[in-house]
Each structure stands twice: as C-alpha cells, then as structure tokens.
Amino acid sequence: MELVVALGLIAFKVALLIAVLLLLPLPLTWMERKIAGHMQQRMGPMRVGWHGLLQPMADGIKLLTKEDHIPAEADRFLFKLAPILALAPPFVVFVAIPFGETVSVLGAEITLYVSNMNVALLFVFAVIGLEVYGVIFGGWAANSKYALLGSLRTCAQMISYEIPMGFAVIGVVILAQSMSLVDIVRAQADLWNIVYQPIGFFVFFVAGLAEAQRIPFDLAEAEGDLGAGFHTEYSGIRFAFFMVSEYVIMVLVSVLVVILFFGGWNGVLIPLPPLLWFLLKVAFFVYLFMWFRFTFPRYRYDQLMTIGWKVLLPLSLANIIITGIVFS
Amino acid sequence: MSRALDRVGTWVGWAFFADLASALGLTFGYMFSRSVTMQYPDKEKWLPYARYRGHHFLKRDAEGEIKCVACELCARICPCDCIEVVPYEDEKGNRRPAKFEIDTARCLFCGLCEDACPADAIALGQQYEFSSFSSRDLVIGRDDLLLKPGKAASGGGVVAARLDTQKTVLVEANEPRGYNWWRNIRRR
Questions:
Q1: Handedness of CA A110, A111, A116, A122 (dihedral sign)
Q2: Among A40, A56, A226, A303, which lies 20 to 30 A Cα-Cα from A322?
Q3: Which of A33, A35, A40 to substitute to test the interface with B, most B CBs within 10 Å?
Q4: Which pLDDT value is given to residue B176?
Q5: Residue A16, in any domain of the structure
Q6: Which chain B residues touch A299 with a CB distance below 8 Å?
Q7: Cα A151 from chain centroid?
Q8: Which residues on chain B are in Cβ contact (under 8 Å) with A291?
C-alpha cells in the first residue's frame, strides 16, 4: 500500500512537472516580447487579450495548424527525431532538481523534488549534454547549408563551454562535500556560495548563457548570418518543440545558478515561503537572460572560442585550485 | 600621467564589466520609459500639423461659389502631370472648372499646385487615409475635392480613435487635439 502511494506521488509529481514545463514557455514568450518591446520603446503584443496576454496562445494555435513541412532532400527519420531529442533532455533534467525541502499537505510531508540523487549534479550535466544531439541532428537532417553551419557552430560551442561549466561547479561541490543538489542548498543555509565562489558563478553563468544559446552566444541560430540556424527548415509543431526546449533550458540554467550559487530556497532578511524565494530568484535570472538578450550584440565565432578556451577555462581551473587550497 | 591613469582606470573598468553594466543600465532605463508606439488605427490616431500636405481639397468663397477660376496653372506646374482641368463659363460669366480631376495615385504631394494657385482655390489638407484597392478610385473629381477636409486647425497630437469597418474602413477621431506625441521621446 505504501509503495502504491509513493509511486502514485512520484507519478503525480512527474505529471505536474511536465505540465508546468510545457506551459512555461507561454508566459515566458509573452514576457520576452514585452521586455523586448519596452526596451526598444515599443509596446510589444497588445491586441490579443489584456496587454497581449493571450498572444502566446494565439501563436501556439498558429504553430499547431501550420503545415508540417519536410524538405525533399532531408533525412526524414533524423528530421523527425531531432525535435524530440532536443525537447526531452531538458525535461528529464528536472527530475533531479529540488524546488524546496518539504511541504505538508493534509498532514503528510511531501518533498518538493522527484528524487534526491546523490549524484544529481553529474546527472544534470550528463543529460543536458544530450540536448546537443537534437541540434546537431536537426541541422544535419535538414540538408541545408544554413542549418548545417548552425549545428556545426553549436557542436563546437557546446563542447567548449561544457568543460568550464563542469569545472566551475567543482568549487561548489568542494564546499558542500556532496553532489546532491539538496545537500548543496542545505550547505548554503548560512551564507550563499556566491560569497565564496564569485569566479565560479561568473564562469558558470557565462557558460550557461552559451549553453542556453542565448545572446550574446546565440551563434547557432544567428538570425543575421544563418537564417535561423539549425531550425531554419523546421515549421509548425516541430519548430515549437525547439522553442520550448530553448525556453526550458533557459529556466534550467537559471534554476541551476540559483541552486548552486544563490542559496536555492534559503531567503535573506524577508521571511517568505522557501518555494516563493526560490521562484523569485529564478524569475530574476530569467529576466536577466532576457535583459542581456536585448542589450548585447552577438559575439563573433572566433571571439566565442577565445572566451571559452582562453578565459573561462583558465578561470575555472584557477577557481578549483584556490578553492581546494583554501578549504582543504 | 593622468592619461596613463585614465587608461588604467579604463582597463580596471573593463575587468569589472563597467561597459557592459552601463549598457544594461541604459536598456533598463529604456524599459521604463514611455513607448513611442501609436496604436493606429483602432485606438489612437495622429492628427497632422496645420502645414501638413495631405489630400487636396478645393475651397469655396463667401457666397459658396467654387473659388477655382480654371486657369490651369496648377495643371501646368504639376511635376507629375496629374491634374486635369476643363474650364467652362457659368451663368454669371465667370470662368469655372467643368472638370477638375486629380490622380492621387500619381501625385507626389509636393504642394506646388497650392503655391501656383492665383485664386487660393486648391490646397493640400489634413487627410492622409485614402488608400484604395483600385487606382481608378484614386482619381478624384471636382465635387469630391470640395468635400475633402481642409487644413488642420491644431495638430501634432495623438487622439483616441475608433475603427469603423461596417461599410468602408474608416478611422474616426472626434477630439480636436490630443496629447503631444513628442512627450514620449526619451531624451538624455
């Protein structure tokens, strides 16, 4: 009986997580377009619903009813597989993400995470690395030079930036003496990691920007020079899959930054519910992503590689050494 | 020495991303500035200035007679040859236009006809919404020109508007003067 309840609870959590993550791009696209508009002295969407609030719904319906076009020379199997490969890993990662300790519902203590793995951090990096397959397959299968160039760039970018990203969190692991995300947050109850790990945070955040393929590192879909990059040839719901994946990764990087460096659900000064604190911090970082997008220009490809290998990698290595010496 | 110090200061600033931070500050400031968008046509509409050169109109004198004396000077000076005037003599013996047609599809709204007119009969008014599906409809005759709205009395404002698509598409605005659109421009 207990097993059934536990399984049911896990199934419920997973279903809730999938539903929330699938619906999350709706408010996020609205937010992004509003922020873009106001930063450029425009209004953004205004016509569908109050201040354009229903615009994402209209866009979703439009994408669902669009023709699902596959280019004649495309590799049909990979072309259909790629959006799913791009969409699934960001969702899978959220299994290991804790959103808080516990809440009591009807007298029962329910944990705010699906699973508390003791290798959660490793799991996150392993699974998020798979997302690049969707991008590479999408670019390759479309058989278009723009898509292929976009996915080639993504491939190089992901490899260069996942290394400093992985190194940057080692300092956090040293501090928490654990790779479980719940333990990492508990270790920050007194003082957030950002105080001990400013370089680690910097490297992780910049690499996260590159990982999420947002401006200033959105070379994979550089509209100016590549059409739309790896999803040039995609239309309709398959294109929507790529967009959802992009937004979920953006949220994921924000969540990881908050958990690893900004104390997760630990609040300061104002006593708010832990979950609310967590969501507020994540919302701030999501806003930061959008703010960056409409402020900075895109880096050139060689600059991107220079930053990755000559700046971030040495910085992250130095961070590991310093952290190791100080906290051993 | 101070130049060297300035250079050091610049480098220190770059090391702590002072340039990126100032860029972020700028966009953040813009985010809370007024947007310059005009929600044309169904919510707001621009009222042109008094000197705006919109659609032509023909004037009447105090007795309600058409002012035009059909001298055809406007037709002569028109650089795109889009005015056609045919004169006739009315019952009082005055020279008047029997036909006064302007092909607004060819007109470039230079206002030379207004300058050339010796009788102060033709002018370019405030109307700017006269798009059409057929270029035939853009040839406007004498009687229609007499009915066109004249120069704007006060202008340069944004007024509340309503879009009427019942019979023809029509943007209606009733207020004489709206808010000054230039107040939305952010200046530093």
A1: positive
A2: A303
A3: A40
A4: 65
A5: no
A6: none
A7: 18
A8: 24, 27-28
Q: Which residues are CB-contacts of B18 (< 8 A; sequence separation ≥ 6)?
A: none
User: Which residues of chain A neighbour B36 with C-beta distances below 8 Å?
Assistant: 41-42
Look at A37 and B35 and tell me if their CB atoms are within 8 Å: yes
- In angstroms, how far is the first alpha carbon of chain A from the final one? 47
Give residue A219's domain range.
70-100+115-327
Identify the CA nearest to A285 among candidates A251, A260, A248, A261.
A251
- Convert the pLDDT of each residue in B126-162 to its tens digit: 888 888 888 888 999 999 999 888 888 777 788 888 8
Average pLDDT rounded to a whole number, residues A310-314 = 92
Which overall architecture, per CATH, does domain B52-151 show? 2-Layer Sandwich (3.30)
Domain count, chain A: 1
CB contact under 8 A, A42 and B36: yes
Q: Is A37 in contact with B28 (Cβ distance < 8 A)?
A: no
Give the ipTM: 0.80
How far apart are the CA of A178 and the nearest CA of chain B, in angstroms? Answer: 31
Q: Kindly tell me if the per-residue pLDDT of B167 is higher than 80.
A: no
Interface of B with A (CB under 8 A): 20, 23-24, 26-28, 30-37, 39, 184, 186
Lowest mean pLDDT across A235-249, B86-100, B152-166:
B152-166
Kindly state the average pLDDT of the residues A58-79: 87
In B47-105, alpha helices (H): 73-77
Question: Does residue A148 belong to any structural domain of this protein?
Answer: yes
Give the chain A residue whose CA is nearest to the CA of B24.
A295
Q: Which residues of chain A lie closer than 8 angstroms to B38, CB-CB?
A: none
pLDDT score recorded for residue B188: 61
In a domain, A56, yes or no: no
Q: Would A28 be classed as within a structural domain? A: no
**Residue in the structure block whose two tokens are 């994540």:** A282
Of the pLDDT bands very low, low, confident and very high (cuts 50, 70, 90), residue B1 is low
Exposed (0-12), middle (13-18) or buried (19+): which is B125, by Cβ within 10 Å? buried
Where exactly does CATH 3.30.70.3270 map onto chain B? 52-151
